[in-house]
Amino acid sequence: MERSNHDSEMEFPQDFRCPISMEIMKDPVIISTGVTYERKNIQKWFFSYKKTTCPATMQSVENFDITPNHTLKRLIFAWHNSHSPSSSSPSCSPSFRRDEMVALLKTLNSSPFKMKLDFMLLGGLEVLFQLIIQILADSSDFMVFRACEEALGVLQHLPILQESDGKVIELLLKPEFMKSMVIILQRGSKEARVYTMSILRKLANLDFNWNVVLNDQGVGMFKSILELASDEISTKVSSSALQVLIKILDSSKECRSKAIEAGAMSNLIELLPDSNSDSDRSKCEKILLAIKLLCECTNGKVAFIEHALGIGAVSSKLFGVSEIASNIGIHIFLLICSFHDPTNKVLEDMLIYGVVKKLVILMHMSGPSPTKNKMVDMFKKHTNLWSRYPCFPSELKGFIGSHRV
Fold it and tell me: By its UniProt entry, which PANTHER family does this protein fall under (predicted)?
């Protein structure tokens, strides 16, 4: 039968319809199996037809209590209002509409994933985008700010795949969207910053040009990510920030240069001494990898050398963290020593902080490899200077002489 009311003209999400009548629910209730029905329909099923099963799942039902689903009812009401022809009329004040939208998004954020997906497919993505970029026009308005945060909360639940989510990616990469996310990273609530990092982490897993984003938001965006990487309260936030940072740094030299300009090297080196426990092993490995990526740039090597703690901090991670951390540390020192002619001060610090001794031990422990050959070459090149110091390992000369590349 063809529905004559306005509901027939609207593409409601399937979850808004009663599984029995397939009509939009006006008084949704939940039964013991967790499924929601229109109250009058499920009451008739149980008490008029004397059924003892759940209509949707056919599970046996022993508890016939029904509980109002206020969350879904409010969501249906808000959705209906926002999609009805009269919704575009100026009958409600902007602040009232923002209040309602925040309530809708909060409800949607806690709803089942399929409902979020239906929301997106029925034009919700554009609505979210407009709510998020409103913060650029008036970030001092509390409700605008809250609506932006709630919209990001919904958006972060969506899977973002290169092959199927072109529209999502297109919107996410717009400069105004990135600017809005930077504002949230800098001034948003802890929860909203987690949402934003989740979205950035998904974007970082895609193969796209980060330079487009960073040309406009580079330094400010890196500063915000680095601040979150230093978060000592939430390991989830700091880990996500480091993951995003590594992905961006690995994408191009231009990205690494922007990060160095934002003070990334100094921030990362100063994070290392606090990453010594077993629970921080993964964090330490990520920090070392980010430092290594920065050292692949000339200005990154300079920033590392100029930092008073650089050599000592990385040296302390060559043993005692993990094999991965040790290997990354070795590559950092190989990069530093390949930087034209490292100054005597750099070479002296490598000896004083135990780098040379640790590398000798690692060479004894490891089998033949390209990395080991590079270490042998490094020792051959700098042994004359190091051998002047009393702390120089006496067995090194014989070891170097016995190894040929």
Answer: U-BOX DOMAIN-CONTAINING PROTEIN, WDSAM1 PROTEIN
As to burial, measured by CB atoms within 10 angstroms (0-12 exposed, 13-18 middle, 19+ buried), residue 16 is buried
Tens digit of pLDDT for each residue in 313-346? 999 888 878 889 989 999 999 998 887 666 788 8
CATH class as words, domain 1-70: alpha beta
Give the predicted TM-score (pTM) of the model: 0.67
Superfamily of domain 213-340, CATH level 4:
Leucine-rich Repeat Variant (1.25.10.10)
CB count in 10 Å sphere of residue 353 = 19
